[in-house]
Automatic annotation (TrEMBL):
<feature type="domain" description="CRAL-TRIO">
    <location>
        <begin position="13"/>
        <end position="162"/>
    </location>
</feature>
<protein>
    <recommendedName>
        <fullName>CRAL-TRIO domain-containing protein</fullName>
    </recommendedName>
</protein>
<dbReference type="InterPro" id="IPR036865">
    <property type="entry name" value="CRAL-TRIO_dom_sf"/>
</dbReference>
<dbReference type="Pfam" id="PF13716">
    <property type="entry name" value="CRAL_TRIO_2"/>
</dbReference>
<dbReference type="InterPro" id="IPR001251">
    <property type="entry name" value="CRAL-TRIO_dom"/>
</dbReference>
Length: 202
């Protein structure tokens, strides 16, 4: 991540985009920290600002009780939203021990093949075995509602749109066809590369 704005401007941007939002509860009554990956401007935010924001604005609101994380990966692009492995590791290491212990589950919505492979390779390194074991992949929103109180969570429209696309193009889940909107209806090409999902790792 490279900062292009002052720390105060970056904090205001985090607030404005509502990247981290505590809202609603899961089926067991635990608070939910919702994170929208597409809203994360990795090129603009510095690691230190993100860590400070979490420490001052997010963690205190979670209190000392158990909670869950809802991470929405829909439409994430590596070049725009992925802060890098070292940045993720630094942010994770700055999370207080009591917060890590109170985290019960991470619901990862619309993971895609490449993000699954990335986490299978680096997940334990980045998150540690304990947190990695709490990761729950959620391919469809209907499956999410089995764990989360639907009427208490705000989900952006583009997530619902992508979920609907997956119903008609299920192979996108497994990276067997491109999910880039510009290829819909495009002529077939000979290269086998076009058969694979271009969804970015994050």
């Amino acid at each position: 991540m490279c900062a292009q704005a002052s720390p105060s401007e970056q904090e205001q941007l985090i607030e404005k985009l509502e990247i981290f939002k505590i809202r609603g509860r899961d089926k067991r009554g635990r608070k939910i920290l919702r994170i929208i990956g597409k809203y994360f401007p990795a090129r603009t935010l510095s690691v230190d600002v993100v860590k400070k924001y979490l420490e001052e604005k997010v963690f205190p609101k979670l209190g000392k009780k158990q909670f869950s994380v809802l991470y929405v990966h829909t439409d994430v692009e590596r070049s725009e939203n992925f802060p890098g492995i070292s940045a993720l590791r630094s942010i994770y290491e700055a999370i207080p021990v009591n917060v890590k212990e109170n985290l019960e589950a991470v619901y990862f919505v619309h993971p895609g093949l490449q993000s699954r492979l990335f986490l299978a390779t680096f997940g334990r390194l980045l998150l540690g075995g304990g947190l990695y074991g709490k990761l729950r992949y959620v391919n469809r929103l209907d499956l999410l509602w089995e764990h989360v109180r639907r009427n208490e969570i705000e989900i952006p429209d583009f997530v619902y749109d992508h979920d609907e696309e997956l119903e008609y193009r299920p192979m996108m889940d497994y990276g067997l066809e491109s999910d880039h909107p510009r290829v819909y209806g495009a002529p077939a090409v000979d290269s086998p590369v076009s058969m694979y999902s271009m969804r970015c790792i994050s």
